[in-house]
Amino acid sequence: MAIAGLEEAVFWRVFYGRELSRTALAAELGVSLATISRAVQRLLQHGLLSEVGATLSARGRHPGLLRVNPHLAFLLGLEIDRDHVRAAVTDFAGTPLGYAAACCDPRGSLQATLVACAQTAARAMEAAGVRLDGIARVGVGHTGTLDLEAGVCLAWDGSPQWIQAPLRQLLCDLFRTTELTLDDRARALALAQHLSMPASSHRGSVLYVHVGTGIGAAFFINGSM
Asked: What domain range is 109 assigned to?
């Protein structure tokens, strides 16, 4: 389901806030409670949100708190670095369910790195109790120089076999899906860190710096990278 406008704003406010009331959402977004309730109802109908703590009494129904529906989908994240591959499986709310890691060497064959990705992802999915056909989307962070629009690795660690490698297509074939996002590893880690922070920290400016086998950075202004 594609969402936009107010419904999208409500979804992300709930995602960041973990559990929010309709009243709090109306105040944060500056709209009436009735308008928020209509948007929330559509998100509930489509299964994107769930409600906890709702009660019934002689005076009627008392709405509960809203949260992202964790059971809507499972997601697979993959980090490909110069000396390791890491994989994690989460539910739709971002709760970690399974994790695995393995060593890799980009100076070896490209195929060997892909095999390491497949094996590491399989162990993470096994730990989470999730099959590959149960994964709704795959996200991949890579430390090479990437053309993100084309999905191509332009260069990585001086290895000739990674020059102009069609990385997104190779990974789509590996995981038998077209639902795959490829991004620079530093950007992906920065966004993940940002999403895990309290909603109050999304106002103002935040600088994220990652120091590993290389150095990457991302800058957020009022929640936007």
From this structure: 74-188
Same domain for 112 and 19, yes or no, is no
Q: Give DSSP secondary structure letters for 36-61.
A: HHHHHHHHHHTTSEEEES-EEETTEE
Contacts of 200 (CB under 8 A, 6+ apart): none
- Are 21 and 97 found together in one domain? no
- 156 contacts 213 by C-beta, under 8 angstroms: no
**In the structure, what pLDDT confidence band is assigned to residue 204 with cuts at 50, 70 and 90?**
low
Chain segment 17-52, per-residue pLDDT in tens: 778 889 889 998 899 999 999 999 999 999 999 988
The per-residue pLDDT for 211 is 73
Overall domain count for the chain: 3
29 and 118 part of one domain: no
- For tokens 């708190």, the residue is 65
Is the dihedral angle over the CA atoms 130, 134, 136, 140 positive or is it negative?
positive
Q: Which residues pair with 117 in a beta bridge?
A: none
Residue with tokens 């940002």: 194
